[in-house]
Amino acid sequence: MNYTEVNFDGLVGPTHNYAGLSYGNMASKSNANKVANPKKAALQGLEKMHMLSQMGLPQGVLAPNARPDLVTLRSLGFSGSDANVISQASKSAPQFLKACYSAASMWTANAATISPSADSGDGKVHFTPANLNNKIHRAIEAKTTSKILKATFADESMFTHHAPLPQHPLFGDEGAANYTRLADSYGHSGLALFVYGEDMNSKVKPQVFPARQTRQASEAIARSHQLDPAQTLYIQQNPAVIDQGVFHNDVIAIGNENVFLFHEQAFYQQKKVIAQIRQNYTGSRPLHLIEVSDADLSVDEAVQSYIFNSQLVSLPNGGMALIAPSECQTIDTVERYLAALCQASNPINEVIYMDLKQSMQNGGGPACLRLRVALSQQELNAVNSHCLMTDTLHNTLTKWVNKHYRDRLVEADLADPSLMQESQQALDELTQIMNLGSVYDFQL
Predict the structure, then answer these.
(1) Residue 110 assigned as binding residue
(2) Domains, the chain, with CATH or none
(3) Among residues 100, 328, 368, 387, which one is catalytic?
(4) Among 83, 129, 172, 424, which residue is least crowded by beta carbons within 10 Å?
């Protein structure tokens, strides 16, 4: 059966701003309180989606969470009209207001972990929304994200939706940003690599920044998705690189089909990890394990450039391309490495640079913006067609963004109830464009 990988990118929400909420994410903290441009952010994201679609790669769109999250604000004791809730929070708890206005759901690599039907015991595609419990501004996403995923992948005969893991540190789950699948093609059984930052039964953990993914969470997801234990590896991220700002595995490693590109400091006991991957990989096509040395690229340069947060995609006519952030061109060592990579003996033969500065300044590159879903043609036909990128949808969403989004947003604007009203009006219209139904609390 013919399988393909579909990238479902998160549409940037109308309240995109720089609040510096993500401790451990260098870009998020360093750009806190800068002036954001929600309109430009959304248009940059749409341009990336449209470009991949034009390249012949199936491309999907996931709607953002509604912000501000008034349900959470009311649960914290703020009451009265919606406008009063915002006014009270802005005066007495501005940090909570910023969290409830965050547009972080745009980074759909953290939305969920997905296992394709080729890997699951029951032959269905499995979805587990991430609980994201390490950060309050993201822990509030799971409920709405679950609704959006169910509205996008609604056919119960093909898609199984699990509840998020319990909201407890033992089961900290940050989604597909810590999951890679190696296979000789999308439709063949693959080797699932679950990368975690901390095993609660071990003392090996970062000392400066938190580990956001636990081994216990990864094991629970693998069980729920009915993955073959012989084709499932649990790999610990190097605690030292987490403390240098590598908050997710996709900031230090990236895989696609039979290619795995990673830094030499990416994993704890890395030589052992490489040996395990070689031993467990069962594909007929040769496995390309590309280890980037410190001499070629430092961890600091990897974090600054987000080179590993590029998208690695298989091209329709053969070979692979890296969809890299334009920041990679600003660091000579990174640009030189990528040029050499394309000339080396591996399937990667092209680098395409994209301007995603609005997202990058908040700590998310091309790979953060997309959720990878490997689907058979029958499964793809069952996806909500209004969520699949076409020229028509691109034009419609571009007009929608230009109609509803501000081109300037700062922290003081969050106290203005009109921002809430604008956002709700825009998202209500979006659910009609994308045929999602009533997925937002304000619609109920």
Answers:
(1) yes
(2) 3-67+102-434 (3.75.10.20)
(3) 368
(4) 83
Of 174, 198, 301, 411, which is the active-site residue?
Answer: 174
- Average pLDDT (245-260) is 96
d(C-alpha 364, C-alpha 27), whole Å: 8
Residue 185 CA, distance from chain mean position = 22
Please state whether the predicted TM-score (pTM) of the whole model is above 0.90: yes
Return d(Cα 19, Cα 99) in angstroms, integer.
8
Helix or strand holding residue 193 (H, E): strand 191-196
pLDDT tens-digit series, residues 144-190: 999 999 999 999 999 999 999 999 999 999 999 999 999 999 999 99
Consult the annotation and say whether 353 binds a ligand. no
Q: Residue 188 catalytic? A: no
- Over the stretch 40-79, which tens digit does the pLDDT of each residue have? 999 999 999 999 999 999 999 999 999 999 999 999 999 9
- Within 13 Å of residue 338, how many CA atoms lie on the same side as its CB? 27
Pair 376, 3: CB distance under 8 Å: yes
248 is an active site residue: yes
Catalytic: which of 50, 126, 225, 248?
A: 248
178 labeled binding residue = no
Average pLDDT, the chain: 96
Query: Is 28 part of any known ligand binding site?
Result: yes
Q: Was 60 annotated as part of a binding site?
A: no
Please report, as a single letter, which amino acid is at residue 57.
L
